[in-house]
Design a protein that fits this description.
- This protein has 93 residues and is an alpha+beta fold.
- Helix content is 26%, strand content 31%.
- It contains 3 helices and 6 strands, in the order E-H-E-E-H-E-E-H-E.
- A hairpin with a 6-residue loop joins strand 2 and strand 3.
Length: 93
């Protein structure tokens, strides 16, 4: 079994426009971004941190960071940069 990959994206727009939608029903940006990332086949988990403007994605090696960056771009939350590393598959408690 191959190890998962963990990619962290720097998304400056996340903390400058953390609420999406009209004035009637604002929605946290994370509520829009995370389900779209998690819908990509091979993505196991996604999370976002508004304060650091980072989006973290745990995914299989078959999913490229570029593919995930395109999803963010299409949602108008472009990634400025990202860092990817292998996950050893061992859960540390």
């Amino acid at each position: 079994m191959s190890s998962d990959v963990h990619t962290v994206f720097l998304v400056p727009q996340l903390n400058s426009a953390s609420v999406a939608g009209g004035s009637c029903c604002p929605v946290p940006a994370e509520a829009l971004i995370l389900p779209e990332l998690e819908a990509v086949p091979g993505v196991h988990e996604a999370s976002a941190d508004w304060a650091s403007a980072r989006v973290s994605v745990r995914h299989s090696p078959t999913v490229s960071p570029n593919q995930l960056a395109v999803v963010l771009e299409e949602l108008n939350y472009p990634a400025e940069s990202w860092n990817t590393q292998a996950v050893d598959g061992v859960t540390k408690v």
